[in-house]
Amino acid sequence: MTDRPSLRARAAAAADDGGLRSNLHRAVTHREARRPEAYAELTDANEAHGAAQRIRLDTLRNLPALLGTMADNVLAAGGYVHWADTGDSAVDYVESVLRRRNATNIVKAKSMLTEEIHLNARLEQAGFEVTETDLGEWIVQLAGQAPSHIVAPAVHLNRAEIADILGKESAEPLAGDVTSLTQFARSRLREAFLDADVGITGVNFAVAESGAVVIVTNEGNAGLTIGLPKVHIALMGMERIVESWRELDVMMSLLPRAATGQSISTYVDWVTGARRDSEHDGPEEFHLVIVDNGRSDILGSEYDQVLTCIRCGACSNVCPVYSTIGGHAYGSVYTGPIGAVLTPLLSPDAGLNDLANASSLCGACWETCPVGIPLHDLLLELRYRESAAAGPTERAAWRLWSTMWSKPSRYRSSLSTAARFGSVSSLPLPGPIKRWATGRTPIPVANKSLRKLWKRPRS
Amino acid sequence: MKVGLFPTCLVAVSAPEIAMAARSLLEQQGHEVVLLEAATCCGQPAWNSGQRDAARPVAAASLRAFVDADVDAIVIPSGSCTAMIRDYWPHLFTDHATEASTVATAVDRTMELTEFLAANTTEPVEAADDTDAVIYHPSCHMTRLLGLVDAPLHTLGRSGYTPISHNATGRCCGFGGLFSIKFPELSVAMADDVLDGMVDADATTVTGCDLSCLLQLSSRAKFRGLDLSFIHVAQLVAGSDPAHRQAP
Amino acid sequence: MTAPPSGRESGDRSSFLAKVEHRASLPTTPHLIHVAEKDDPAGGVAYTADLSDLVATFTAAAREHKSVVYVVHNDAEHLAAVLDIASDSDVEEFFVSDEAEAREFGNLLEQAGATVRPITEPRQLTQRDTVVTTAVAGVALTGSIALSSGASGSRLLTSLPKSHIAIVPAASIVPTPRDIYQGFAEERWLGSALIIATGPSRTGDIEMQLAFGVHGPGQVVIVVDARP
Q1: Which of A28, A134, A350, C120 has its CA 20 to 30 A from that of A338?
Q2: How many residue contacts between A and C have a Cβ separation below 8 Å?
């Protein structure tokens, strides 16, 4: 167990952080302003979502065949494939490649999977130098922080905070405007790219029939990560796969629109392995690491649908909880509504299972999700799962409530008790009712019974 | 029709006049209304906490009251309870033969108040010359779970009210049942986002179909001393000026 | 499953997939928001855009994504575009790739007085350089260009430099990205890295304010060659 403050405390602290709230508000408003325009380019967004959902569900049912085909195609093209049943297996493999290639410097394009398996920390411990190249990821890496959003890792920081972080990297004083900061990042990271021995990326979608991995960015850092170093290692969650270019197209018509309100990401890289003989540059080796790390346990369970996620982050953008507390309060690499479901499933022993409670079940995530994952219902399933771990006091309280309210006469008598005391605290409702008083006036209790009112003679 | 009113536990505890107003509206539409006295609570507080075994007997008691009632329809002045019944009772009773056999019929006869009123109106809404603006708070259960976007607007329109929105319309009030006390600071911050939008709107009366949302917002608004008043759609419409009103 | 002959496969494919197979076959009840009535969910998505005039749609979309676009219908317009580009005082020298259209453009730039060099070592292209290449295709819907490391011989030509001038043959413009994905899959253009690029490199990571030229060109100039 950790000595991390409780989820309530983390949420309260974040909700109280005016700077954070304002940074989040800006990001969310901006994203939400652009999304309708991008979606208006589709003739029928509901139909597109339906098609995407069907494609992703079919992928899960056909997963073994798709993965087999993908691996065979990568191998046939001269690439390497590693089957990593656990995160550690993936990290061990990456380390073994780095050692064999005498690599020291690694550059990375953003990959949530690599955060999930703690790749950077393990490699750094082993003496390798790892540089994130996505601007937001580089900023949080320099600040020693975790990313706070699936798509926009530094969304919790404002320009002044970022200028401060980047300023520490610069020998000369750094102007604080966005252009100067970006140009500084470009120059500094260019050195890292040129020095790098190995480039590591994630995979947005693997295309089984073609043996291709598709990686999208707006910055172009994937292009340099796979273009300059001699080795490209791509790590993929095993469920991030489609059968062919046709399914890819449907998914790609929605991913950028849902994520950032764009019609298309600035760079879509379709990579089928290492450089060809006729090419002047590109890596000599291409490695695909297929990672399970708990996904197969989710497959076929009541949470199965969570594996259809395409990591667009739209759920976070519309979530009233996320936009109030930001990503760090979740305590996990996966934040927002998808994180609240995925984290207790992938890491049940991380002490984060109460994430399922930090939701008002408003359903905005489900409404927005391009593949229609019922995150609100999956949160309810998690709460049901966790209810078995409730302590004896809590269970007794629920039993009392159930006994009292399953009989009309007992129910009525508990209501008249509440009326007599003028307070809802006397109702047999489990829960810290006193906490209602945090910033709110008391809930009024009627002093007349409805039955009596109803039976009154009418004029 | 003969209609059974399920008042809901929150209305019974905090604002029984909402049930009385609902009766009045239903009677104005020509229905006979009985109070489902044997129905207690839909079980949502326990269901939302994952305590399904505790929820089941309570929901079963209400289900029995629905089944036993000699009525053509069951009407509920709450989107949240209607959603619990429509969306989740079938799951709650999946492996329980007695209830499973009756839940579908009961659920089919159950409607939220404005949903029922809109479905049983014969004439179209006429535009009134002189309407009152009122801030309408669309609850998450009404819109996302039940898909009831137009019915409340229909009910308000027939009574001479023009529902208006604000820049935080559609955001959750932060109640979420026990969420409001498990994460009070977060819940209050969410209420503030909605209230900050309402305060900028061109009306000071807020209405909605869910007492839970109205209590959450009004108790925070009072604490902050905001110039907003809160009233359930049933009470607003039942008490509205007859001169501005068509039959509900 | 037979062991792969290559020695490039590691981990245990068979036990990995056996578990996946078992789990994937368990009955699940997906919560459907919309059952796609179409027989073919992979049949592509319909767009509202008018795709009847591909060059016009491409030009408008490319400009929306912050590319500079010239459309040339004849040699005179082609030359005018060359002169306009050559007169860009920010550019010291143009590096031109080997494809025919790029070379033609390079020759004209040189005749217009610009310093033009062939690309000998792509890796040495710096952040200050301007590169001229040919795109293998254009995408009307999004104003994107398709690039192939096989066609240009390099993955770096279009990512390292400061500016990218892309010659797009008008006949190569297809309606939507779907056509490009199909082309990639069918190996219409051979190359280990196939790219769809849409305008200059950008980021919104700092306060959602757009900044250009992060890890790719900060300026993209497209010359749509619509000469007969």
Answers
A1: A134
A2: 341
